[in-house]
Design a protein that fits this description.
The protein is mostly beta strands and 177 residues long. The protein is 13% helix and 53% strand. A nine-stranded antiparallel beta sheet has the order 1-2-3-4-5-6-7-8-9. β3 and β4 form a beta hairpin. The two termini are 34 Å apart.
Length: 177
């Protein structure tokens, strides 16, 4: 199943690499013979692409697959569109990115869903933009589990706004799950 998934991912990403101005394909494969007579194989494949569009916007995309013989497969991908309107990101994002954007005083600690990291990533949609000192961010996290395992995270919505004026910054953030 994993070999089929990796082959499909490679086939799906090749047309993107052929069309974009710049694309990077990288990966690794390592096999180890253990004294128990088994072979341990670890592999990873990453594809990243970037395109400057005619209207001044920039589109980027990245996808990675990591797999090993223990059937621990990890897939992640992100697509971003950036321009004068702000930045729209879809895919693997910071679990509380929009909520933290409105925390100008640093009063709210970064959420921890993984024991080995101060922040975690989830799949969702994130928008951030700034106009005349007003910055807004909005995010919807999909119903996925945290990166480090454990209990499943429920779908959440986050919004924030900050306004900077004469050295004073006011901010508001809201999150619901």
């Amino acid at each position: 199943m994993n070999k089929t998934l990796i082959a499909l991912a490679i086939a799906a990403t090749l047309p993107v690499a052929a069309v974009a101005d710049s694309a990077t394909i990288s990966g690794s494969l390592s096999s180890k013979y253990k004294n128990t007579g088994s072979i341990d194989t670890d592999s990873s494949l990453s594809v990243a692409s970037s395109e400057v569009l005619a209207n001044g916007m920039t589109a980027t995309a990245g996808f990675s697959i990591t797999a090993d013989t223990d059937d621990d497969t990890e897939n992640s991908g992100t697509a971003t569109l950036a321009g004068d309107f702000g930045t729209l990101t879809v895919g693997s994002i910071d679990a509380d990115g929009a909520f933290q954007a409105g925390d100008v005083g640093g009063a709210v600690s970064n959420t921890t869903e993984s024991t080995d990291s101060t922040s975690s990533s989830v799949y969702g949609i994130h928008y951030a933009g700034t106009v005349a000192g007003l910055s807004v961010a909005a995010q919807v996290n999909a119903n996925t589990g945290p990166t480090g395992g454990g209990t499943a995270q429920t779908k959440s919505t986050q919004m924030s706004a900050t306004y900077a004026m004469n050295g004073l910054t006011l901010g508001y953030a809201y999150a619901s799950a």
